[in-house]
Design a protein that fits this description.
This protein is of the alpha/beta class. The chain is about 30% helix and about 20% strand. It contains 12 helices and 12 strands. The strands form 3 sheets. The chain has an 8-stranded mixed β-sheet with strand order 2-1-3-4-8-7-12-9, with helices on both faces. Helix 1 (about 35-50) crosses helix 7 (about 190-205) and helix 3 (about 90-100) runs parallel beside helix 5.
Length: about 350
């Protein structure tokens, strides 16, 4: 058996509009447990970037510590990357974003990395509306340290050791909405059809995009009684709507009732389905209520939960330079005594 990925690409492999094959967006061979949901999320990220024809060198992928934070090694080999210390990825992402707003920032974290030691870091990145896509691979346990319950483990969920969790679990989506995230979605690692368009829309959104992905741990949290297992999530998944991602082109308009097909710019068709007439993705109160109702019914809402297209992202809010800091010249960095004096006068 070989553990080295072949570099050969078949000459007739499909290419995107940049001329890249899907393999160009892949990374190293995964060392995660066979069947880990995190690998499915990595594959969804690869598909999203390939289909959007994103230039990999324009992506900065960041992570902290944990099984999920290992995954940036498994996608987008030709991108920038930074693996930070435990729970500190949001600070690194903030600094990098303010230094160079031209890059696409993709943060990957876990429920331990973001809901425990990095809880405060996560909260401040959200409320500042940092322009990035933040994906939490949520399995409800600490996979690197033998499966202890994490802060997102549901109350009463039974661990592999047979012990019920005595604490209330943190709802990352409800928290993100309350803190000011401007794009919030939830999905299941086993539902690639739903997850890929959610990632594409998140990358396309200006502001803090948060996706909480239920990603069962096959080794420590896939047992009977766990509310993060494959069987449980499949049986309790309640999709809010059927969605797809439409790239920015000339506007396509359509009036319909129930469901209909609309032709997209590339000749393919998008099926639209109005499943829930009472759901408004721009209404914070309605979705927070829906999340609580679903929690009480032991259901998991998936799909696009909330979006705000009129928000102001951090760089625009504090008026940072549009030029990356590493491209500023000496004349721009040291404009002279007159400019300094003018600045000092404005502070008096």
């Amino acid at each position: 058996m070989s553990y080295i990925k072949p570099k050969f690409i078949h000459p007739r492999s499909p290419k995107n509009k940049l001329g890249y094959s899907r393999q160009y967006y892949e990374g190293s061979l995964s060392t995660l447990c066979a069947g880990c949901g995190h690998d499915s999320i990595s594959a969804a990220i690869v598909d999203a970037c390939y289909e959007m024809a994103i230039e990999p060198h324009k992506v900065a992928k960041l992570s902290g510590i944990g099984c999920s934070s290992k995954t940036p090694a498994y996608f987008l080999n030709n991108s920038h990357g930074f693996n930070s210390v435990h729970g500190r990825m949001p600070s690194v992402a903030t600094g990098a974003n303010l230094a160079n707003r031209d890059l696409i920032y993709l943060g990957v974290s876990g429920d331990g990395d973001s809901a425990s030691i990095g809880f405060g870091q996560f909260a401040h990145a959200v409320r500042r509306n940092l322009n990035m896509t933040y994906i939490v691979m949520n399995n409800g346990c600490y996979g690197l340290t033998k499966g202890q319950d994490s802060a997102t483990a549901d109350h009463g969920s039974i661990s592999k050791g047979g012990i019920p969790n005595t604490f209330e679990g943190i709802d990352m989506c409800a928290l993100a909405i309350q803190l000011g995230a401007t794009y919030v979605a939830q999905s299941f690692s086993g539902d690639k059809t739903q997850l890929v368009p959610l990632i594409k829309a998140a990358i396309n959104h200006k502001g803090f995009s948060f996706i909480n992905v239920m990603s069962p741990c096959v080794t420590f949290n896939n047992n009977a009684g766990s509310t993060k297992s494959y069987d449980y999530v499949r049986e309790h998944n309640e999709a809010l709507s059927s969605i797809d991602f439409v790239p920015v082109k000339e506007e396509i308009t359509l009036e319909y009732e129930g469901e209909d097909l609309v032709e997209l710019h590339d000749g393919t068709f998008l099926k639209l389905n109005k499943l829930n007439q009472n759901w408004d993705p721009k209404d914070k109160l309605s979705i927070i209520s829906a999340l609580q109702i679903a929690h009480d019914k032991n259901e998991i809402l998936t799909g696009l939960l909330y979006i705000d297209n009129d928000s102001v992202e951090l760089n625009e809010l504090i008026n940072t330079t549009e030029k990356p800091l590493n491209t500023l010249t000496e004349a721009e960095l040291c404009p002279g005594v007159d400019v300094l004096e003018k600045l000092n006068q404005s502070l008096r």
